[in-house]
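Exercise 3.2. Students should predict the tertiary structure of the chain below and write it as structure tokens, then compare their answer with the key that follows.

Predict this chain's 3D structure.
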Amino acid sequence: MRHRSFTILELVVVLIILGILIAIGFAYYGVVIERLRGAEARTVIKQIREEAAALYLQERGNEGFNDVAAGIGLGIEPISGPTQNDCTDKYYFWYKIEAGSIVSNFTVTATRCLAGGKTPNGIVSGYLRLLTNFTAQTDIWLSEGGY
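Answer key:
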């Protein structure tokens, strides 16, 4: 009785197919991991939106809402400083709040740190932005970079 074994050509074809599948997997893995890092931005933005902004507007009325009001750049463990160069090693993103022309409007932007942030830093710039209008009770999410 003769035993059949694999030929070299069959083994090479299998290795090529496995190599292609592994390369596709690694490329997709990076995208998934970066998207998961965006969960930090969504969490921080939602916290600013739901807690700090609502309380500030309720208590202070028409004084507006900005980084100082939310405590960004201040305190023992700030989220980030006043510029993108102030990324902290505790976050993957740099956060900025901009008050609108009307007190009830504000925008929170989380921009991926390319240097100085929690490692690994981003390779490509991207952002996640929330535009909130308390009067109209609307939230609009915008993003770039897969967040």
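Discussion points: Residues 39-144 form a domain with the Glycoprotein, Type 4 Pilin fold (CATH 3.30.700). The chain has one domain: 39-144.
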